[in-house]
Amino acid sequence: MINASLKEMAAALAAKKISSVELTQLFLARIKSLNPDMNAYITLDEARTLAQAKLADARIANGDITPVTGIPFAQKDIFCAKDWRTTCGSRMLENFIAPYDAHVISQFDHAGAVNLGKTNMDEFAMGSSNETSYFGKVKNPWDRERVPGGSSGGSAAAIAARLCAAATGTDTGGSIRQPASLCGFTGLKPTYGVVSRYGMIAFASSLDQAGPMAKSAEDCALMMNVMAGFDERDSTSLQRDKEDYTRDLNKPLAGLKIGLPKEYFAEGLSAEVAKVVQDAIAHYRKLGAETVDISLPNTRLSIPVYYVIAPAEASSNLSRYDGVRYGHRAAEYTDLLDMYCKSRAEGFGAEVKRRILIGTYVLSAGYYDAYYLKAQQIRRLIAQDFEEAFKHCDIIMGPSAPGTAFKIGEKADDPVAMYLQDIYTIAVNLAGLPGMSIPAGFANKLPVGLQIIGNYFDEARMLNVAHAYQQQTDWHKQMPEGIA
Amino acid sequence: MQWEVVIGLETHTQLKTNTKIFSGASIKYGAEPNTQADEVSIALPGVLPVLNAEAVRCAIKFGLAVNAEIAPRSIFARKNYFYPDLPKGYQISQYELPVVGKGSLTVQVGDQEKTVRITRAHLEEDAGKSVHGAQEGMSGIDLNRAGTPLLEIVTEPDMRSAAEAVAYAKKLHELVQWIDICDGNMQEGSFRCDVNVSVRPKGTEKLGTRREIKNLNSFKFMQQAIEYETQWQIDTLEDGGTIQQATVLFNPETGETRAMRSKEEANDYLYFPDPDLLPLAISQADINAVKATMPELPEAMKSRFEQQYGLPAYDAAAITASKPMADYFVSTIQAFGGEAKQASNWVMGSLSAKLNEAGLEVINSPVSAQALAGLLKRIADNTISGKMAKDVFEAMWAGEGDADDIIAKKGLKQVSDSGAIEAIVDQVLAANAVMVAEYKAGKEKAFNGLVGQCMKASQGKANPAQVNEILKKKLA
Amino acid sequence: MSLTINDVKRIAHLARIEVSETEAEATLVKLTGILGLIEEMQAIDTRGIAPMSHSQDVVQRLRADVVTSGNQREYFQKIAPAVEDGLYLVPKVIE
Question: FRET partner for B214 with CA separation of 20 to 30 A, picked from B37, B220, B433, B445?
C-alpha cells in the first residue's frame, strides 16, 4: 500500500479493504522506524493524527467521500495548522503552537484528509539543501550522505522514503522542484496566485507559492484539486473558476511543441544530468511531440534579481519575529532594543540572518532604486522572455537542477554556490509561471528531474504532459534501497 | 530681525468604519485590551491583509470634499521600523502613489480667507498603544487600535501663524465630520495633528529646519505648542544656535515642547511596495458612485443659504460651520415656514450662546429645532414680543414645555386687540397730560415715554408696534 | 560598491540583530560575496521598463466592512512570552 497511488488508496478505503486508521498507522509505523535517521518530520502528533483518521473513517462509512478522504499527507512545517506546533524550521518558532489553520491545511481538512505530521525544511524556506533547519539536516533516502534538496527537504525525503502518501511543499525559487529532482518524485509549483498563501509563513511574498509533492503527476493533479482555488483572505489569490486538474491527464501529446531553452543546456549543467534530460526529451518526441529551440536570454540574471527581491521581502516579512507576542524571546536583556537584538540573534540561524541583512541593505536609503526597483524591472524582462518563448512552443523543458544530490556539508559554507542550485527554477518564480519536476532517470544512481514549465494557468496541460510520460516509463515508481 | 513662522500639518484621522483597514476585527473604542486584536492585528505568522472597501470610500469622499485628484491607481507600501506597538515591524501605508493627490481647503482666519493647499492624503493603518505602569520597568502593549484605518492628510507649509494652523485644523475637523468619515473625537484620538514648525527671516524664501510637534489632540494645545515652539526656535537662532531636525512632544502641564528621546536615529524606513497587496484601482464610476452619496459640502450649502433664504454671508457662514448646526437650522426653517433671517438670528444668537454656556453640542440641545420653530411662530404671529420670547426661550431651555405651554402658563400672551390697546392708550393719554403737551411742543422723546407708559399699563403684554401706531394716530 | 564593517553593523542595527565583532567580520565576507553576485544586474539598462510585482494584471480586491472576528485574546496569549492583564509585556517603551 505504501507504493500505491492516491487513486488506489482511495479505492481501497472506499472498498473498506483498509481503514484510514490502518493506513495512517502503517505510515506512522514507518515514520517511527525510519524518521529518527531520515529526520523528515519536525513534529508528529499521533493522537491528533489518529483522531483525524477516525473522523475520516466515519465520513467514509457515511459515504461522504472526496478523492483524498482518509489519506495521510505530510504537511510542510511552513503551514500554520491549528493547535499543531508550527516552526518553519526555526528556533524562533520552536514553541509556536499555531492558533489558526492555513488555507491549504483547512482545504485538506475539509476534504477529509489526514495530517500525518509537519515536515522538516530549511529555516523559513531559505535554503536548497535543508541544512539550514534548526531541527537538523534531512537525509536523502537515495544516499543518506547526501542532501534531499530544499527548502521542502523534509517533504521530499518523506515521499522518497514512503513516509507519507504525498506531501505539500512551497516553492519560492525552486523549493518544490529542486528537491523533487534530487529525491526522484513529482512536484508542481502552480501559477502564482492559484493556491492561497493565507497561513503559509511568508518568505518572499511575491514569489512564494504552495504546491503538491507526490509520487506521480496524477497524484499531483488530485492534490491540486484540493489545494487550488480562490481565497478571499489572500489579496494576491486569483479569482478564477474552479478547475479539475485531472481533466486532461489522458490527452494525447501528438503535436505538442516543446521549447528547449539553449540557456538551460549550457555551461554549469552536469553532463550526466544533461544526458538524462535529453533522453527524456527524446522519449517525448516518440510520443508525438516536436521540439523547438528557444532562448530565454535573461536566465543568467534571474539569480541576482532573485537574491535582491527575495531577501528584501523576507527582511520585512521576518520583522514580526520580535519576541513580543509569540516566538523566541531572549532570557536576558537590558532594555527593549537589547531584547529585540538578542531575541532575533538567537532565534534566527546564520542563513536567515544573512538574507535579512542583504534585504535590509538593498532596501536602505539610497539603494532602493539601484537594487529592489531595478530587480523588479529586470523581473519583467525575464517574464517577457517566457512570453516570447511561448509564442513558439506549448511547453518548455529542461533540467530542474544543475546536478544530482550533493553531499551534506559540501556547499553549506558557500552561499553563492548554494544559490546557483536554483539557476533553472528561479526564473519561473520571478515570472509567476507554473513549473514542475518529474523523475526522468538516474545519474550515478541518483535521481534526475526533468523540469516542465507551462504558460500561466496551464497546470492541467503540464500534468497531462507529465502523466503521458509516466504511463510509459517507470522512473517515478523507483524506490531507494533500504526503506522497505 | 523680523521672523516668519512656516507651518504645515499632517493630520491622522481615524476613519469611521466598523472594522480594521486590513481585517475584520472591530475598531470600537474602549474595549478591554487586546480583545479586538485578531490574528492579523497581532501579526501571526502567515496572515495577510485585505483592504476594507469602506476605508477606500472614505478616502474618495475626502478627495471630493477638498477638490483633489483621486488617483486611478495607488500603491500600498511598507514602512519598516521596530516598535512594540507595531506588530508586523512595518506599517502598511502609502508612499509614492497616495490615493488622494493635490487639493485645497479654504478657511476663515478672523475676517480673512486663507487657502491651504493639501499635498496629499493617504490610507494607512494605525499602531497599537503602549500602556505604562503595568509593571515596574515594563510597558504593556494593547493592539486593539493596531490596524484601525487612518487617512493621513498632509498640507503644504502654507500657514504663517498658530491662528492659521488652528483655523485650518478646526475647519478640517468639521469637514471630516461633515462628510461623515471621522467621528472627530479628539479625546479618543480620532483626530490627531502633527505640526511641522520652522522659522525664517521675514522676506526670505528658504525654509528653515523644521521640528515636528507630534500628536496634538486639542486645538488649545496646538495653539500653545506652536506659539511656544516658534518662540523657542526664534530664541535659539537669535542666541546664535541652530535648529536640529527633530520630533518633539508638547507637555500641556508646562506648556513646553521637548525633543523625543527615542526614534533619534536618522530614520531609514526601508520603504518598498507591499507585495501582499495589489494596486488600488479607483475608476470614474467608483468616484461617481461615492459622489452620489456625498452630502452637500459647506461651501455649496453656504451659497445656497444666501440665495435660497436670503441670509447675509456672515450668517450663512456661521450656520454652515458645522453639519449639525446647518441641519438644525434647516429643520427649524422647515418647521417654522417664516423668515429665515429670524431663524438664523435665534440659532446664532440665543441658542448658540446657551449651548456654549452649557458646553453642549447642537445635537444635544434641550430645545429642539421643532420647539424653536414653535417659538418663532409665536413671534411672527405677534402672540409674543421679541423680549417676551427671550423669557419663553429660557423656560423652554429649562424644560418647562413648548412655547405655547409656557406662554399660556405664564400668561405672556401679547395683547393685539386694537380695541383693548386703544382703551389703554386713552387711559395713558388722560393720565399724562404733561408728556402729551411736551410731545406736541416738539419733544420727540416724550413719545417714547408714552409708549413706555402704555406697555407698563398693559403689564408688558401690549403689542408694541400696535401701541406705536395707535399713539401716533391719537396724537396727530 | 564595497561593503564595510560599519555597513554591516548599521544594517544589523536596522534589522535588530545583534552581531559580535567576529560575527560582523565573517558576515562581511559572505555578504560581499552575495553582493558580488547581485552586482551583475547593474550592467542592464532598465530605463523605461515598468517594475513587475505580480505576473497578472490584477488590482486590489476590497473586503466588505463587516466584523468577522471576535475576542480570542486568551487563546492567542497562550503562546505569548509575557502578558499581564491582557497586555503584552515588554521592557519599558521610552518616548
Answer: B37
Does the structure show a pLDDT above 80 at A103? Answer: yes
Of B19, B34, B35, the CB nearest to C67: B19
Kindly list the residues from chain B whose CB atom is less than 8 angstroms away from the CB atom of residue C12.
none
Q: Say whether B46 and A363 touch across the interface (CB within 8 A).
A: no
- Which CATH number does the domain housing residue A383 bear? 3.90.1300.10
Establish whether this prediction's ipTM goes over 0.95. yes
- Across the interface, do A360 and C14 touch by the CB < 8 Å criterion? yes
CATH of the domain at C10: 1.10.20
Q: Which CATH architecture has domain B418-475?
A: Orthogonal Bundle (1.10)
The residues facing A167 across adjacent strands are A74, A213
Residue window 124-153, chain A: list those with CB within 8 Å of chain B: none
Q: b/e for A341-379, b at 16 or more Cβ within 10 A?
A: bbbbbbbbbbbbbbbbbbbbbbbbeebbebbbbbbbbbb
DSSP string, B249-297: EEETTTTEEEE-SSS-S------EE-TTSPPEE--HHHHHHHHHHPPPP
| B68-81 b/e (C-beta count within 10 Å ≥ 16 → b) | bebbeebbbbbbbb
Which listed residue (A175, A181, A343, A400) is catalytic? Answer: A175
Domain count, chain C: 1
Which structural domain, as residue segments, surrounds residue C13? 5-41
Which residues of chain B from 143 to 172 reach within 8 Å of chain C, CB to CB? 143
User: Is residue C31, in this structure, part of any structural domain at all?
Assistant: yes
Residues of C with CB below 8 A from A191's CB?
Answer: 55
> How is B280-346 classified by DSSP, letter by letter?
EE--HHHHHHHHHHPPPPHHHHHHHHHHHH---HHHHHHHTTSHHHHHHHHHHHHHH-S-HHHHHHH
Q: Position of cell 513529482?
A: A186
Residue B177 has pLDDT above 70, yes or no: yes
